[in-house]
Design brief:
Blueprint: H1 2-19, E1 30-35, H2 38-48, E2 53-58, H3 70-83, E3 87-92, H4 99-111, E4 115-117, E5 128-132, E6 136-140, H5 146-150, E7 155-160, H6 162-173
Parallel strand pairs: 2-3, 3-4
Antiparallel strand pairs: 1-7, 2-5, 5-6, 6-7
Helix pairs in contact: 2-3
């Protein structure tokens, strides 16, 4: 009886191995942690080097006119990317607590040719993510505020993964 169970288990294992996708079929994911102040510079760098498409979503994107405002630098780079032919879409939360700041930033981005969306669903869009050229993915806790980019303890990840970038892009496109 025990040998029959082992034989069945062996056949099951063989079937699973034959049907499974080989791990080598998927390219390895390259990742880097972006702690605290590292995020803003990396995001700006990726935007500057973008060639085709930027799709991002942020709960809070707060641009001010104060000198050295990091979110203003990000907004300026998004506008420059759009001016050089990159498709740029920014998804922002429209809830009461962030409405004013996000609307002010949206107005600036729209004047620069950037497409801005406020999802109409009844759920809060709390994502903080950027997908660049369907390859690079920046995802984590960073909002685009001066505090988050320069003062808070924040942690995000930069991933070089076309597969994860595509999954994230599909998710974000369904927020609209």
């Amino acid at each position: 009886m025990a040998s029959r169970a082992w034989r069945s288990a062996g056949w099951l294992l063989c079937a699973l191995l034959l049907c499974a996708r080989p791990l080598a079929a998927q390219p390895p994911v390259q990742a880097a942690l972006l702690a605290n102040r590292a995020y803003g510079g990396e995001l700006i760098n990726r935007i500057q080097h973008s060639k085709r498409r930027i799709l991002c979503a942020f709960y809070l994107f707060k641009v001010t006119e104060k000198r050295g405002n990091q979110p203003a630098a990000v907004a300026a780079e998004l506008i420059r990317a759009r001016a050089r032919g990159v498709e740029v879409t920014v998804i922002l939360e429209g809830g009461k607590t962030v409405w004013q700041a996000n609307r002010q930033t949206a107005a600036l981005l729209l004047r620069g040719g950037v497409k801005v969306l406020f999802p109409s669903r009844h759920a809060v869009t709390h994502a903080k993510v950027a997908v660049i050229d369907d390859r690079w993915l920046l995802i984590g806790s960073h909002n685009l505020t001066q505090s988050a980019l320069l003062h808070n303890n924040e942690l995000s990840v930069l991933l070089d993964s076309p597969e994860l970038a595509l999954q994230t892009k599909r998710y974000l496109e369904n927020l609209r």
